[in-house]
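Recall from the previous lesson that a structure prediction takes nothing but the amino acid sequence as input. Here we apply that procedure to DegT/DnrJ/EryC1/StrS family aminotransferase from Pedobacter chinensis. The sequence below is the only information supplied.
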Amino acid sequence: MINVTKTFLPPFEEYTTQLKRAWDKAWITNNGELAHELEELLKKYLNLDHLLYAANGTIVLQLALKALEITGEVITTPFSYVATTTALLWENCTPVFVDINDRNFCIDENKIEAAITPKTQAILATHVYGHPCNIAAIEKIASKHRLKVIYDAAHAFGTQYNGNSVFNYGDVSTCSFHATKVFHTGEGGCMVAKDPVIAEKLMLYRQFGHIGEDYYTMGINAKNSEMHAAMGLCNLKYIDDILLKRKQVWEHYAESLKNHDLQILEIDGNVSYNYAYFPVVFTCEEQLLEAVTDLNAKGIIPRRYFNPSLNKLPYVDYAPCPVAESIASRVLCLPLFYELATEDQDKIINSIVNTKSIAKKCA
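The prediction returns the following tokens.
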């Protein structure tokens, strides 16, 4: 079976060597030595001043909203994983959905200002599939209207925008280190803030609001363990090789499928992409469903990522986002991972190209 992704795992002995450091100290959580070391190495690798390692990629969104004191309307995208919307709802904010563009599927910056009201406090935008939003335009709008900006960069580890890590933008950027991501710690995430005051608030919120016996503010438990940090320390050694291999797989897909009736993600010229996903957009949902059936019959498991469009969730107030709704019904992410063999990739390509799914006419 070829799944949409496969977790990269370092040599087992390398992981156990790192794990033994925590084991020998019997210090396996509460911001241990390995977690601190991982934070420092990540800051160095990404050229960041502040980065905080945390439990997962959802709780860091919640902490960002809390640290920036966001309680009102938040302009956001309907085309993302459900956690983007859930974090807003969980923090009693009101998501205001703005449609996406049809090139890289990020929030359409040209439609943001029309959605701003006196209740708007922030913009929460997702770097979809690891490709950045139009950061320059979003931050210009935010500055004009005095809005905070949070970037859900869950997919974007290793992506650069104008030569800088995408984490270097916004009031807070967050990332997921889930096992399915380009860089992972099994479970985990991080949050990045340029303002040291916000970074300190995030640090305190992550650990119940106290340092030792000194209590400063409210907080929750968003710390991560030494077991997870050990995985991150191992995997960071391989990240450049991981990114290179993913690029090779991505480019083979793109070259093989470019002359067929499929839309492929456009990468902007000012972006150094991390090749996190390879989405293809079919002409209609019927084509997609037939392709999925054909692939599944061969033991290939792609993913309809993201479907449904989040503005259609049953627990939010529906507002039409026709581009997002259309893309969500027709997009399919093909298998992409470090160990994907070329012969297996060709099976996937041939299944799509040679079956009747592409030729099938849409109503």
